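does this look right to u?? nicotinamide-adenine-dinucleotide version
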Amino acid sequence: MSVLSFDPNGIRLRGGHFINGRLMDTDIAEIDVQRPSDHSSYGAIPEAGPSGVDRAVTAAKRAFHQSGWATRPPRERARVMRRWAELIDSNVGELSRLEAVGSTRPISEAATWDIHFAAEGIRFFAEHADKLGGDVVATRSDNLGLIISEPYGVVAAIAPWNFPLVMASWKCGPALAAGNAVVLKPSELTPFSILRAAELAVEAGMPPGVFNVISGSGHITGGALVRHPDISKVTFTGSTQTGIAIMQAAAESGLKPVTLELGGKSPQIVFADVRSIDRVAETIARAITANAGQVCVAGTRLIVERSIEQHLLELVIKKFDELRPGATWSQETTLPPIVSARQAARIHRLVQETVAEGAIVLTGGGPVAEMSRGSFYRPTILTSVHTDMTACREEIFGPVLTVQAFDDEAEALALAEHPSYGLAAGVYTSDLNRALRSVRTLEAGTVWINRYGRSADFMLPTGGFNSSGIGKDLGRQAVEANLRLKTTLIDFAEA
Ligand code: NAD
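got this back:
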């Protein structure tokens, strides 16, 4: 067995809710949790109903007011968060196996990227604890005008399953650094790794109750959390459909501000003047097959200059062929499973619908035949597509790439437009002016030039335009979004 590969049946799981600094098994209803790699049930979680949610929010509210987390010198808060990050790093073996066993994250990536990236994100947010106190404004000279930033109180964080720990760290890190208490609801599909990380937060010195995790489904636990009257702000990452429901519930239950990181249908535009077509092919292939396409910023729509279309596609297919489908606990795996049989069926239905609309399957187009357990989908390329076809419009959340050819820049940029999403875009060209014109034109929260995908530049905020979201994760802006501003005017004219 390779160094990182592991026996999935040897993983010790502890499910439940993490409230007031302790892991507790509460509430009667249980949710069965399956491993995407083989669909076997490997654990269960309780489902927090309104009373379980209330217990967590009440603990958080008490900790916010009484633990000193918000009122202590901010560098002390930062020190605890840095220590938490260190503990996450040093427990990489256990956390990466917990992450990989029940998610779509291959162990080779979980152990070398996810866990350390989550820890580094927490460190990054901690650095802002004493940097965002507010502002002094120009007033008459015998007055002092202050804009004081303060934490909201209890922040509800709701996270998706595709990068469980990283997404949770992006939701909770900025809220905690700003001095808030947090109640996190991870996805019911991937509940375990963050529970262990929560224990490490307390070990690092975070006061009990400052960071809580509740388990359960979206509509019951998530719904009760968003509507709880003591929640002051909601930060969510997930689908656009759920984001809309959350925004509505947040508005109806106290006009709570929301940060929403939602779906996408991101284009990648390749001009014929690229320096290295091999390198571009590799990037395009990675941008649609990483995590089996289950990435919000997946580069799902290839828009390529007609003169290089055929050559580029040949190279991309070669890259697809190098991928090795397999279980997430095998170090050799480079194409992980689709998260559930239901999601795999949805991917296939959307591909078939697009074929019925006139698309041609250049490669892929169905499940990986040699994988008898789990749901694995072949990296797929659809050509002869039009902008209004299903696969060009809908977020598929699988390894499915559509291809459209263009003859000039204006046509490329027009094809890149999407009627609702605006999460990310990639442009490949060696013409600087063209690159900058594209940046100005593209309706996307992030534009990558001659590269694609996340980097360790945490200072760059991430977040979408239009139906892809509201607000930013990462960057100083993510911490600012967890602070509210109090305007103060002091008259000191009287001697
Ligand atoms: P999802 O919307 O189904 O679920 C996300 C979370 O919301 C889960 O914890 C779920 O239990 C909860 N939830 C569901 N319904 C709810 C409700 N009514 N009230 C409260 N909570 C509810 O999304 P998913 O399938 O877990 O994740 C995939 C989606 O996430 C994709 O659309 C992807 O693009 C998006 N995503 C976006 C980003 C980003 O940064 N923009 C990052 C990762 C994933």
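Residues 63 and 240 are 32 Å apart (CA to CA). idk if thats expected tbh
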